[in-house]
Amino acid sequence: EMDKQAVRIEEKVHSYIRSNHMLDDCRHIVVGVSGGADSVCLLLMLCDYVKKHKMDICIHAVHVNHMIRQEAADDENFTRKLCESVGVDCYAAHIDCIGIAREKGLTVEEAGRLERYRIFDEIAKKYKDDGGVMIAVAHHMNDQAETVLMNMARGTSLKGVRGIVPVRDNICRPLLCITRGQIESVLSAKDQPYVTDVTNFDNDYTRNAIRNVILPYMCEHINPKAVENISSMAVNIREAEEYMDRQADRLYSECVSEKDDTIRMSVSVLKSADMVLVKRVIYRCLVELAGRAKDIYSVNVSDIAALMDMQTGRTIHSVYGIYAIREYDDIVLGKRQDKSCIQGKDGSNADNVGSGKELYDKNVCEYDVEVDISALSSSITVNIGKNIYIPGEGGKYAESITFLLVDKKTLSTDEKNTPDNAKICVNKSNNGYAKYYDYDKINKLLNVRFRKPQDDIVVSKTGNVKKLKKELVDRKIPSSYRQEILLVCDNNHVLWACGVRRSESCLVDDTTSRVLEILINVKERN
Asked: What is the separation of C-alpha 246 from the centre of its chain, rounded to a whole number of angstroms?
């Protein structure tokens, strides 16, 4: 018969399991059992919980022999006998922890942890087709306090101070609500022996120094409930963190848009939000582009946040080859490409982000089709099959471009002089963008392509020439979109930058006898 204190502790754990929904829809529990006090208590409490609530749940114990200590074989035998006494299957795995640590460049402690979870996952996968599977591990309040103190000492964000969470994915920690002392009192009340890992007293391990020196000192000289208070603080921080994460998710949905391999953040929306949320949104964007969270620090986030107060064109080089550019009301993040990916067809290097200028995409820059319209009698259609950008309309998919002669008499004055971004509905099945030129004044060998650094365009009827890049800047076309403006060119002279402007040369006037219509057929991007 257990004493009342042990019963209260067990009821506390059972309540913690229910309130955190640890075993909801669960058919199998994989329990890590080393033979130490924590894991022995966990196994017994889970067995009692399942029996008490008459649950249809199978418990499977997993013992990992790290082959470090001489007593490891004794620990394994103890665990096997314990599992047999409570009617639980026991899987034992042997790993060369020291060899794995040496091979992967890890500490022995870290190598052991990674291998344990790998083995737990392997066992759990055996039962995934037979209902839900949870992995239960024996972290308790002291582990929580140790983790919080260690993270604080090493340097961490609020996420690190919230410590260990009760449930993450398919891993649960039922003992996180009680202390190591309470675990020992329960085992004592049950008259249940356990093994002791002597390496737990080796203060060469960072965590062991906190466990054996720092926390005992705090409990003895500062507050006897230091462990409980640190754990309670971690819970409060976790609740605040979860709230801020929800707010950051809302801000992310309001200010972030993703296109291909770039992420665009609205500066005006970011500036309307608290900086603590802004930093979370930027951090999330960096993690998405990097594909990992490792080695992304607060300084990386702060550097990009500073772009909100900088002028257009300013660039930040961040981790994992990520760059961030201020573009008018946006901050655009992407990953740098090799120089081999940013060369024009003529072999010249395009402006690259390393100099704070826009990045050229290899797949776009390589598209360059020559069209001979010297023998044009009816029409010539050229397939494009590229994503393009049209200011005011956004991203489109250009299917083809058609060159055809039209009767001048059929054109209205509006059609002859359509604004640069005007859309012409060609027929019921096609939407297109069209421009009209004097066929006899135009060069008969044209190119359909995307931008090159040397492109220029005639911007006045008197023949004034302007660099196309300057025109795009003046019209506030974001640098990340400039590479997607489709061009019709005569060598390096732009006849038409679709959606931006047409050249002021070769226009239809009173002397025009033959009119060339250039029609770009587009549809929405997939």
From this structure: 16
Q: What is the dihedral of CA 185, 186, 190, 192, to 10 degrees?
A: -80
Residue 150 near residue 44, CB atoms below 8 Å: no
Q: Are 92 and 80 in contact (CB under 8 A)?
A: yes
What is the average pLDDT across 443-454?
Answer: 88
SS3 284: helix
* pLDDT at residue 272 tops 90: yes
Looking up tokens 């790290």, which residue turns up? 66
Tell me the one-letter amino acid at 181: G
Q: How many CB atoms lie within 10 A of CB 364?
A: 17
pLDDT score of 68: 72
388, two tokens: 């393009």
Residue pair 381/404 in contact by the 8 Å Cβ criterion: no
- What is the 3 state secondary structure string of 306-364? HHHHCCCCCEEECHHHEEEEEECCEEEEEECCCHHHCECCCCCECCCHHHCCCCCCHHH
What is the Cα–Cα distance from 381 to 385, expressed in whole angstroms? 12
Q: Which residues contact 488 (CB under 8 A, 6 or more apart)?
A: 401, 446, 447, 448, 494, 495, 496, 498, 518
Residues 6 or more apart whose Cβ sits within 8 Å of residue 133: 26, 27, 28, 29, 30, 124, 127, 170
Give the full edge-to-edge strand order of the sheet including 515-524. Answer: 379-390, 394-406, 515-524, 431-438, 424-425
Measure the CA–CA gap between 90 and 86, rounded to whole angstroms.
11
Q: How many CB atoms lie within 10 A of CB 449?
A: 22
| Residue at 18: amino acid letter | R
- Report whether 90 contacts 79 (CB < 8 A): yes
What amino acid occupies position 340? S
The tens digit of pLDDT for each residue in 277-287 reads 999 999 999 99
Region of 444 on the Ramachandran plot (φ > 0 left; ψ -120 to 50 alpha; else beta): alpha
Beta carbons of 443 and 522 less than 8 angstroms apart: no
What would the two tokens of residue 313 be? 């064109």
pLDDT in tens, 177-208: 999 999 999 999 999 999 986 555 445 566 78
Q: Which two tokens mark 199?
A: 């390496």
